[in-house]
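Record type: monomer structure entry
Structure origin: computed from sequence
Chain ID: A
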Amino acid sequence: MSSLLDAVYLRGEFVSLVVVLVVLWVAAPRVASLIALPRAPIGSLYSDSVIIFVVSGRVAYLLAESPETLLDPLVAIRVQGGIDPLWGAVATLAVLAWAARRQGAAAYWPLATAWALGLAIAVAAYDLSCPLRDACYGARAEPPLGFRMSGLADTRLATPALEGALLLALLGALVLTWRRWRAGVAAHVLVGGVALLRLGLTPLSATGWSGWGAEEAALAAVVSAAGAGAAWRQLGPAPG
């Protein structure tokens, strides 16, 4: 499918980003209704976050891999060359901080929850659009767990699709039990869930587990902090 998209001068990576934007646009009013906020700030939060994620993640990738290409705009805008998701995600936190400051302190947790919902929705949409990029393959596995994929002689796990499906299950479980959670709990659970799935499924990815690096350490730190934050918000003293 990626070769078909190339024939009409579209890259699968760009199409996947468009899919993410469309899904977030559709989800924004439903998120607004769920957390009782106007749609406008949530829509702005999502669109700004996607732009900042792509730009900052791309710049971080080029700085690490080939800084000289930053001077070539044609190379810089080719998203298929690589994006650093860790720095992209960190940069979107600045968008959340800016939006919360504009809306006031009382809106912080609703906006943080909207941001976390958007994060999980965006990651799930990107994962499940992996056929557009010919990038659904994970670790080698025998049928029926493994599938034969385009351009590969062996059968592979569809690890990105698995991650997307598990994220959708987490989102569904949270929405169905929404009224049981105190403010901020869902935000911590979603952020921690995204990080935990990415870390936990690493051994099933195409590259496999190669030991602890900066990204793995960061994901583990996020999981720990999010778990502690969720427990404190849910079990700690009631907000005054």
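Annotation 1: The radius of gyration is 19 Å.
Annotation 2: The chain has one domain: 2-235.
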